[in-house]
Design brief:
single chain, alpha/beta, Rossmann fold, Alpha-Beta Plaits, eight-stranded mixed β-sheet, four-stranded antiparallel β-sheet, 8 helices, 21% strand, globular, binds magnesium ion
C-alpha cells in the first residue's frame, strides 16, 4: 500500500483544478457523500445554529436529481434532516449508525445497539461534572455524546479534558473518544467510523459497482477515516482554508481540497450540470 503523506496545502483544488478532478472521474458517474458541519454549513459557535443556506439546499437537491447523494454526519440523523429541511435525501447520522433513505426508510444496522445505557450514563456524568462551566454544550446523540467547548474560556479547557479522560479511564472497554474541532465525541468502543460507514453505504445502496466513483467531502479528523477507506476506490475532498493554521499543515488522505463551504456549493453545482 502506498503511504500518502500529503498535507492540506499540497492538494489540488477540486474547483480550480477542475480538469484534474474530472480526469479522476473518467466518465464514470459519481456518488456523492457529504459531511454536514463544515461542509454544507460553516462551523458555528453553537451546533444548533448550523442551518443550511437556501442556496446550498437547492444545490444539494439539484445534485441529488443527477446522481446518488448521501449526507454522512456525526450528528443525530433527525437533527441533520431538520437543519437541512429536506426529507428526500439519504442521510446517515451518528457516524453512519443510523441510516435513512427516502425509498426504504430506516435501514437497520445494529453495530451501535447495546451501548445506549453506557452513553446515557456518560451523558449524566458529563452534565454533573461540566454543566457549571459557562459555554459547555453537552449534546447527547443516539450512539454517542459530544462535549462542545468552542465557547468555553481557554482557562477551563484543561478541566474539560481531565473530566473526559477520567470518564474514559473508568470505562476502558466501553468508550472511546474522537477529538474534533473544539469537541470531544465519546462513542462506543467498537470498530466503526465514517470510513466503515461509507463502505457499508456503498454496499447497502448498491453503489459498489465499477461504473460508480464515490466522492467524499469532509472537513474534520473523523473524515480522514472516510478518505482512507476510499483510497484507490474513489476521491476524497477535504474542505478547509489552506491558510488556516488549524488546517494547512494537517496530514490528510484526501486527494483534493475545497477552500470553503462557498467553494463546496460551486463545486456541487458543477457536478449537477
Ligand atoms: Mg464536519
Amino acid at each position: 500500500m502506498t503511504v500518502h503523506a500529503s498535507t492540506v496545502r499540497d492538494l489540488p483544488d477540486a474547483l480550480h483544478d477542475e480538469g484534474l478532478f474530472f480526469e479522476r472521474l473518467a466518465g464514470r458517474r459519481p456518488a456523492v457523500f457529504l459531511d454536514y458541519d463544515g461542509v454544507l454549513t460553516p462551523i458555528v459557535d453553537r451546533p444548533e445554529d448550523a442551518v443550511i443556506s437556501k442556496g446550498m439546499r437547492t444545490t444539494v437537491r439539484a445534485l441529488a436529481r443527477r446522481c446518488p447523494v448521501c449526507v454522512v454526519s456525526g450528528r443525530d440523523r433527525q437533527v441533520v434532516q431538520e437543519l437541512m429541511g429536506v426529507d428526500d435525501l439519504v442521510v446517515a447520522g451518528s457516524h453512519g449508525f443510523d441510516i435513512w433513505s427516502p425509498s426504504e426508510g430506516t435501514i437497520a444496522h445494529d453495530a451501535g445497539s447495546g451501548y445506549e445505557a453506557v452513553i446515557s450514563d456518560a451523558t449524566d456524568e458529563l452534565r454533573a461534572a461540566l454543566g457549571s462551566i459557562p459555554g459547555v454544550v453537552i449534546e447527547p446523540k443516539r450512539a454517542s455524546v459530544a462535549v462542545h467547548y468552542r465557547l468555553v474560556n481557554p482557562e477551563d479547557h484543561g478541566r474539560i479534558g481531565a473530566v473526559v479522560d477520567t470518564l474514559l479511564t473508568e470505562r476502558p472497554e466501553q468508550l472511546k473518544v474522537t477529538p474534533g474541532k473544539k469537541v470531544y465525541e465519546l462513542q462506543p468502543k467498537i470498530d466503526w467510523n465514517k470510513g466503515r460507514a461509507v463502505l457499508y453505504l456503498l454496499e447497502t445502496l448498491g453503489l459498489d459497482t465499477a461504473d460508480v466513483v464515490p466522492l467524499y467531502l469532509g472537513d474534520d479528523i473523523t473524515d480522514e477515516d472516510a478518505f482512507r477507506a476510499l483510497r484507490g476506490l474513489g476521491v476524497g475532498i477535504i474542505v478547509g482554508h489552506a491558510a488556516d493554521p488549524e488546517v494547512a499543515g494537517r496530514a490528510t488522505a484526501a486527494d483534493f481540497v475545497l477552500d470553503s463551504t462557498t467553494e463546496v456549493e460551486q463545486f456541487l453545482s458543477t457536478l449537477a450540470r
